[in-house]
Here is the input.
Amino acid sequence: MTESRRTALGLLGTGLTAGLAGCSSLAFGGPDQYIPLSLRNEHDVTHVLSFSIVSTPSDPNDSFDVESSDARYVEPGETREVSEAVRVGDTSPIPRTVLVMLETEAATRTRILVAIDETLRITVTETGDITVETRR
Here is the structure.
């Protein structure tokens, strides 16, 4: 009887583990979803926008996780879209820190809440300043 019980418990444990592996529809953690990033250049010169989007840890001693990082040329008057740039889950809105730097060494760091139905927008203004905001 001992072997049957051990076998049954082993199979049950294996079955539960296999059933949970890769399951993304559990109540405590749905699949990751992504929202787009919009890069807009309202300045009169072409810019290289370098950006990193990182998670904002609740504990200042925790590390940041880089979610997206890239650099793109953006011509004057142009808007470029980056699909699936910002990861959001089913617990939106979530805090993110957006770091942006231009080739002119102008830079900004913005902490922002991002929701699933929004687009993150980085803009170089007519005066060459950098703004970061969300849009519905």
In short: Residues 1-5, 11-28 have pLDDT under 50 and may be disordered. The longest strand covers residues 79-88.
